[in-house]
Amino acid sequence: MKFKIFTYPVPPPEDPAELNSFLSSVRVLSVSQYKCRSGSSSCLVFVVEYLEGKPAGQKGKPQPRVDYRETLSDGDFTLFSRLRDLRKTIAEKEGVPVYAVFTNAQLSGIVEKRINDMPGLLALEGVGQAKADKYGQDFIRLCREIFPAPDPGGSAAP
Asked: How far apart, in whole angstroms, are the C-alpha atoms of residue 87 and residue 94?
């Protein structure tokens, strides 16, 4: 994964053509926005985390829509819904679309693989270090509640 930084004066131009062109030419993982101030001038800085290659929407074949209510068991769908609720809360707080936090496929992967630690999260397709650092701890906390780690004492039932 790579990063690209764009800087614009405040107020920004009506159409940040360079940023928009770049965003439409790569697979965007996340965009972070910062306001910087130096003396009396201010600027906006956009940090784009991306993968090289065409954006997901330009791969040729449209991705089939997955109904997770049908593909997951009832119990797993309940867990998936809890993760989705957390994702929505974080996305609203951050002012980003929900898929910028984690995609439905990533949430489904968390449930199916019973991920409750950072290495497991990083093993998911499309989850890099920056996304894991930014959002991972909240999801890991909930996942540990949902998928507790095995008892380290190893007391087996007779």
From this structure: 10
Token readout for 54 is 């065409």
Alpha-carbon distances of 143 from 23, 31, 33, 140, 157, rounded to whole Å: 32, 25, 28, 5, 25
Q: How many C-beta atoms surround the C-beta of residue 142 within 10 A?
A: 17
Answer for the pair 124, 106: CB distance below 8 angstroms, yes or no. Answer: yes
Q: How far apart are CA 140 and CA 137, in angstroms?
A: 5
> Is pLDDT above 80 for 47?
yes
53 within 8 A of 28, measured Cβ to Cβ: no
Q: Which two tokens stand for residue 94?
A: 């951050």
> What are 98-140's pLDDT values in tens digits?
989 999 999 999 999 998 889 999 999 889 999 999 999 999 8
Q: In this structure, are residues 131 and 29 in contact, taking their beta carbons and an 8 Å threshold?
A: yes
Cβ 101 vs Cβ 133: under 8 Å: no
Model confidence, pTM = 0.56
